[in-house]
UniProtKB/TrEMBL annotation:
It comes from Paramylibacter kogurei. It is an enzyme of class 2 (transferase). Residues 330-525 form the 3'-5' exonuclease domain. This is DNA polymerase I. Belongs to the DNA polymerase type-A family. Residues 10-270 form the 5'-3' exonuclease domain. It catalyses: DNA(n) + a 2'-deoxyribonucleoside 5'-triphosphate = DNA(n+1) + diphosphate. GO terms for biological process: DNA-templated DNA replication; double-strand break repair. Pfam families: 5_3_exonuc, 5_3_exonuc_N, DNA_pol_A, DNA_pol_A_exo1. The lineage of its organism: Bacteria, Pseudomonadati, Pseudomonadota, Alphaproteobacteria, Rhodobacterales.
Length: 937
DNA sequence: TGTTTCACG
DNA sequence: GACGTACGTGAAACAC
C-alpha cells in the first residue's frame, strides 16, 4: 500500500492506550509470568485488545492509519496552570506500574505507531491528530470512552467505546452533555470534574451547566451577562467564581498544537511481522495468545516452556484453546460404529465434555434431540437422535430424518460410560443435562461443571454463561442459538434444524466446554477455591436436580378463584380511580399516573429518575395517601392486586406441569454473586407472605394426600453471622441467652428496659440491625424509618458507640476488598468487588455490597451445606425436599413421619457450619407444619 | 430492549 | 449541599 498524501478516503484510528491499560488491569484477574512472577495481566489484556482491534476492523470500515497514544509520565502543562489538577490521584497500583513500559513494547511488536509527548496527556495528542486529520479530509475514530475527548466529535470524527461496543457520535455527546460537541468545553468548565479535580462552578453540575449554556449561547456570553440570572445563588456563583471557571476552561480544553514527531505516513497500517511479534509474546509467556495469533498469521507458534502443573486428570491434555475453533471440522455421528468409536475415545481419555440439545428450555417438558461430545480441543461430535425433516403430516408431525441412530439404542450405548465412576463428565450448567439424562433413564456421574468452576473462580466479576465465558477466556464468539432457531413467532425447535447445521452449533458447545474446563480446573488450587468448588458447588448439582424434579403441588382451582376475585376488585378500584382522576387512563402506566397526580391534580412531590418521568413508587404514593389523598391510596390497592394476579395467581397456573400436576422451579446456582441461589421459571423464592391478601396465595401450595408441608427456617441467621464475624460480644451473648435481639439492641442504645418496651423503639432498633447488614447509611435508614436524616445519623452514631466492633468490621472489610479485589465468606467463597476502587457514586455502592457479601454469603454457604447433607440424612424417611428460600427449606412429608423428619432436618441445619467453621453463636431453626405453605409458616 | 415497580429473604 | 445510596434476587407491564 503506497501512501502519498494523507487525507480524503483515509480512516485514522486513534487508540487511547492508557485507557486500555487501566481497563485491562481492572477488568481481568491478576496474572503473573510463570518464570519470574512479573505481573502481566494488564499487558495480556492490552495485547488481546490490540489484536481484537486489528482483527475486528478488517471490513470496509477498516482503518488505513492507526496510532496508539499514551500518557507521558510526570507533570503536564495543566499542573502549571492549576497545581491541584489531578492532585488527588493515587499512584498506580504496585503491580500495574511495571507493566506500563512493556505496553509500549507490545504496541511496537504489533507493528503499530506508538506516540507520547512529555508535558502532555494522551488526550492532547489525540485531539491534535484528530484535528489535523479532520482538516485533511480524513475520517477519524477515537477509540476511548473518556468524556474529555467528546469535544472533538463531529465533522468526520467519531468515538468508539470498545468495552461497551458503542459508537459515540454527535447525538451521543448531546445525550451526555446536553449540548453539541462544540459547547462541551463550556459545559465542562462550569460543571468541573471531581475525579480530575477541576473546580468548575460550585453547585453547578452538567444538567444546570447545559441549561445555562443553551440559554446564553456560550460561556463568554454567559459570564458577561451573569448578572441577568434570576436564581440568586447561581448568579453570585458565576460572578464570584468567574476566574475559577476560566481556569477550568483552560484545563478541559484539549491542545490542538501538541508537538508530535510522527507523520501520518508513519501511522499507515501494516500487518504485524511474525518475527517480531511472536518472540515478544513468547517472552511474555502468553501461550494461548501466541498460538492463536500464530494461527491467524499462518505461521508456527513459538515454543514456550511448559509450566510445571497438572492440566487435568490425565495430565496429558492439550492446553486449552490452542487450536482455532472451527465448526466445519466437527463430526456428525450417524451410525452405531462411529458411536462406539467415540465411546472408546472417551475411555481412552478418561473424561469427556458432554452437552445435550433439546426442543426447548424447560427441562421437565422438553425432548432430547441430540448429544454432543468432545474429548480434545477442536475435536467434537454431534449425535442427532430425533431430528425431523420434510413437510410433515396433517397433524403437525414430521418425518424423522434419515441416518440417525434410534434414541434408545444410542442411550444404551452411552449409558455405561455416562454412569461410569471412573469417567468424568464435563458440562456447562450440568444440572440441566443431568435432568435431561435422568428423564431418559441415565444417572450421569461423576460430573464437573465449567459454569460452577467459573463461579468459584470469578464470582462477582461477570456472569458465567457459556457465551460470556467463551468470549472472555477463549476470545471466541460462539454461534448464537438465535441464528439457528430464529426469533419470535417464526422460531423453530432444535429438532427441526438441518443436521449439518445443528452439528456445527452443538458440537462447538462441547468443544468450548472442554477448553474452558482445561483452563479453569487447574486454576482452582492457585485461587484457593478448590474447597468451595468441591464442597459448596459441585455437590449441589444432584441435590437441586432432585428437588426441582420433585416440584411442589399447586391447587389450580384455588389460584383460579383468587384470579377472578382480584379481577373483580380491580375493576371496581379502576372506576373509582378514574372518577377521582376526572378522566380514564391506564392505571398500570406509571407515566400516565404521574401526569395525572402531579400535572393535572397538582399534588406535591415532583420529578426524579433519569428519564425525567415522575416517580410513583410505593414510598411516594404512601406519603400522598398519608396526606389524605384518596387516589394514590386506591392506586396502591390496585397495584397490589394487579401484581398478585399477574405474577402469581395467573402466571403460576401456567407453570403447572401437565404430566406431574406440580410446579417445578429451576434454581440458578451461579445466579447471585454472594452464593445465594436464584429461582426462575417460576421464581418460587418470592411468593407473597407479608400482606394478608398475598398470604392467601401460599395456601395454594399444598401437600399430596396423606402428606403435610414442613417448613424449617434459620432464625436471624445473618445477624448471628454478623455477631460472629464482627466479634460483637454483647450481641453474641444475647443470642446465647436466647434473647429478643432487636429489643436488646434497643435497650443498649436507648437505655430502656426490655420489659414493657415501646414497640416503636424496637422497630427502630430492628431497622438498624438490618441496616448494618446492608452497609448502613444515614440516608437509607432515614428513608426506611421515615425520619429526618439527622436523626437517622444520630441513631447510627449511637449504634457504633455501643457496638464498636461493627464499625471495625465495616472498615476492615472495605480495606480488605480494596487490597485484594474480593471479600470472602467464612467458608472461603470469594466474592470479587471489581468496582471497589471506583470513584464517584459507584464507590458507595461497591462498599456496601462488600460489607454485605461476607454476611449474606456465609449464610448462603451454611444452607448449601445443609442441603448437600440432606439426601443422606433423610434417606430412611419418606420425606422429599421441595424448595429453598434463602434461609428456609420446605419438605413434603407423610403425616406420620413429621416428627422424626423435623428433628433430623433441624439437626442437620443447626450443625451445618461445623466442622469447617465453629460459630461462636448457635444457629437455631424454627419449624412449622401444615396442609399448605401458609399454615406451615 | 430498557425502565419501573414490587414480590421475597 | 454536587451526585445518589440501604444488600441480594426475578417477573410483569409499559414505553420506546
Amino acid at each position: 500500500m503506497s501512501q502519498t498524501t494523507f487525507g480524503k478516503g483515509h480512516h485514522l484510528h486513534l487508540i487511547d492506550g492508557s485507557g486500555f491499560i487501566f481497563r485491562a488491569y481492572h477488568a481481568l484477574p491478576p496474572l503473573t509470568r510463570k518464570s519470574d512472577g512479573l505481573p502481566v495481566g494488564a499487558i495480556s489484556g492490552f495485547c488481546n485488545m490490540l489484536f481484537k482491534m486489528v482483527e475486528d476492523q478488517k471490513g470496509s470500515d477498516a482503518p488505513t492509519h492507526l496510532a496508539v497514544v499514551f500518557d507521558h509520565k510526570g507533570k503536564t502543562f495543566r499542573s502549571d496552570i492549576y497545581p491541584e489538577y489531578k492532585a488527588h490521584r493515587p499512584p498506580a497500583p504496585e503491580d500495574l506500574a511495571p507493566q506500563f513500559p512493556i505496553t509500549r513494547d507490545a504496541t511496537r511488536a504489533f507493528n503499530l505507531a506508538c506516540i507520547e509527548a512529555e508535558g502532555f496527556e494522551a488526550d492532547d495528542i489525540i485531539a491534535t491528530l484528530a484535528d489535523q486529520a479532520r482538516t485533511a479530509g480524513a475520517r477519524v475514530t477515537i477509540v476511548s470512552s473518556d468524556k474529555d475527548l467528546m469535544q472533538m466529535v463531529g465533522g468526520g470524527v467519531e468515538m468508539y467505546d470498545a468495552m461497551k461496543n458503542r459508537r459515540i457520535g454527535v447525538e451521543q455527546v448531546e445525550e451526555k452533555f446536553g449540548v453539541g460537541p462544540d459547547r462541551v468545553i463550556d459545559v465542562q468548565s462550569l460543571a468541573g470534574d471531581s475525579v480530575d479535580n477541576i473546580p468548575g462552578a460550585p453547585g453547578i453540575g452538567i444538567k444546570t451547566a447545559a441549561l445555562l449554556i443553551n440559554e446564553y449561547g456560550d460561556l463568554d456570553t454567559l459570564l458577561e451577562r451573569a448578572g441577568e440570572i434570576k436564581q440568586p445563588k447561581r448568579r453570585e456563583t458565576l460572578i464570584e467564581k468567574a476566574d475559577q471557571i476560566r481556569i477550568s476552561r483552560e484545563l478541559v480544553t484539549l491542545k490542538l498544537d501538541t508537538p508530535i514527531d510522527l507523520s501520518f505516513d508513519d501511522m499507515a497500517v501494516n500487518a504485524p511481522d511474525p518475527d517480531v511479534l511472536l518472540p515478544f509474546l513468547a517472552e511474555m509467556e502468553f501461550r494461548t495468545m501466541s498460538a492463536r495469533i500464530a494461527a491467524k498469521l499462518g505461521v508456527d507458534a513459538p515454543a514456550i516452556a511448559e509450566p510445571v502443573s497438572d492440566t487435568g486428570p490425565s495430565g496429558t491434555a492439550t492446553p486449552a484453546a490452542q487450536l482455532p475453533i472451527d465448526p466445519e471440522k466437527y463430526e456428525t455421528v450417524r451410525d452405531v460404529d462411529r458411536l462406539n468409536a467415540w465411546v472408546q475415545k472417551i475411555y481412552d481419555r478418561g473424561y469427556v465434555a458432554v452437552d445435550t440439545e433439546t426442543t426447548g428450555l424447560n427441562e421437565m417438558i422438553v425432548d432430547l434431540v441430540g448429544i454432543c461430545l468432545s474429548v480434545e480441543p477442536g475435536e467434537a461430535c454431534y449425535i442427532p437422535l430425533i431430528h425431523k425433516e420434510g413437510e410433515g403430516d396433517l397433524f403437525g408431525g414430521s418425518n424423522l430424518a434419515p441416518n440417525q441412530i434410534p434414541l434408545d439404542q444410542a442411550l444404551d450405548i452411552l449409558r455405561p460410560v455416562l454412569q461410569d465412576e471412573s469417567i468424568l463428565k464435563i458440562g456447562q450448567n450440568m444440572k440441566y443435562d443431568a435432568k435431561i439424562f435422568k428423564r431418559n433413564g441415565i444417572d450421569i456421574a461423576p460430573i464437573d461443571d465449567t459454569m460452577l468452576l467459573s463461579y468459584a473462580l470469578h464470582g462477582g466479576l461477570h456472569n458465567h454463561g457459556m457465551d460470556a465465558l467463551a468470549e472472555r477466556y477463549l476470545d471466541h464468539k460462539p454461534i448464537s442459538i438465535k441464528s439457528i432457531l430464529g426469533t419470535g413467532k417464526s422460531a423453530i425447535t432444535f429438532d427441526l434444524v438441518p443436521i449439518d447445521e445443528a452439528t456445527k452449533y452443538a458440537a462447538e458447545d462441547a468443544d468450548i466446554t472442554l477448553r474452558l474446563w482445561q483452563m479453569f480446573k487447574p486454576q482452582l488450587h492457585a485461587a484457593k477455591v478448590t474447597k468451595v468448588y468441591e464442597t459448596l458447588e459441585r455437590p449441589l448439582i444432584p441435590v437441586l436436580a432432585k428437588m426441582e424434579m420433585n416440584g411442589i403441588k399447586v391447587d389450580r382451582d384455588h389460584l383460579s378463584r383468587m384470579s377472578n376475585s382480584f379481577a373483580q376488585s380491580m375493576a371496581g378500584l379502576e372506576s373509582e380511580i378514574h372518577e377521582l382522576a376526572g378522566r380514564s387512563f391506564n392505571v398500570g402506566s406509571p407515566k400516565q399516573l404521574g401526569e395525572i397526580l402531579f400535572d393535572e391534580l397538582g399534588l406535591e412531590g415532583g420529578k426524579k429518575g433519569k428519564t425525567g418521568a415522575y416517580s410513583t413508587g410505593v414510598d411516594i404514593l404512601e406519603d400522598l395517601a398519608a396526606e389524605g389523598h384518596d387516589l394514590p391510596a386506591r392506586v396502591l390497592d390496585w397495584r397490589q392486586m394487579s401484581k398478585l394476579k399477574s405474577t402469581y395467581t395467573d402466571a403460576l397456573q401456567t407453570h403447572i406441569n401437565p404430566d406431574t400436576g406440580r410446579v417445578h422451579t429451576s434454581y440458578v446456582i451461579s445466579g447471585a454473586s454472594t452464593g445465594r441461589l436464584a429461582s426462575t421459571d417460576p421464581n418460587l423464592q418470592n411468593i407473597p407472605i407479608r400482606s394478608e391478601a398475598g398470604r392467601k396465595i401460599r395456601e395454594a401450595f399444598v401437600a399430596e394426600e396423606g402428606n403435610v408441608l414442613l417448613a424449617l427456617d434459620y432464625s436471624q441467621i445473618e445477624l448471628r453471622i454478623l455477631a460472629h464475624i464482627a466479634k460483637i460480644d454483647n450481641l453474641k451473648q444475647a443470642f446465647l441467652d436466647g434473647h429478643d435481639i432487636h429489643a436488646m439492641t434497643a435497650s443498649e442504645m436507648f437505655h430502656v428496659p426490655i420489659e414493657g418496651m415501646d414497640p416503636m423503639i424496637r422497630r427502630q432498633a430492628k431497622a438498624i440491625n438490618f441496616g448494618v447488614i446492608y452497609g448502613i447509611s444515614g440516608f437509607g435508614l432515614a428513608r426506611n424509618l421515615r425520619i429526618p436524616r439527622k436523626e437517622a445519623q444520630a441513631f447510627i452514631d449511637t449504634y457504633f458507640e455501643r457496638f464498636p466492633g461493627i464499625r471495625k468490621y465495616m472498615d476492615d472489610t472495605v480495606a480488605f476488598a480494596k487490597e485484594h479485589g474480593h471479600v470472602e465468606t467464612l467458608f472461603g467463597r470469594k466474592i470479587h468487588t471489581a468496582e471497589i476502587n471506583a470513584k464517584g457514586p459507584h464507590a458507595g455502592f461497591a462498599k456496601r455490597a462488600a460489607i454485605n457479601a461476607p454476611i449474606q454469603g456465609t449464610a448462603a454457604d451454611v444452607i448449601r451445606r445443609a442441603m448437600i447433607q440432606m439426601p443422606d440424612a433423610i434417606k430412611n424417611f419418606p420425606a422429599k425436599m421441595l424448595l429453598q428460600v434463602h434461609d428456609e427449606l420446605l419438605f413434603e412429608v407423610p403425616k406420620d413421619a413429621v416428627e422424626e423428619t423435623t428433628e433430623t432436618v433441624r439437626k442437620v441445619m443447626e450443625n451445618a457450619a461445623s466442622p469447617v467453621v465453629k460459630l461462636d453463636v448457635p444457629l437455631t431453626v424454627d419449624a412449622g407444619v401444615g396442609n399448605n405453605w401458609a399454615e406451615a409458616h
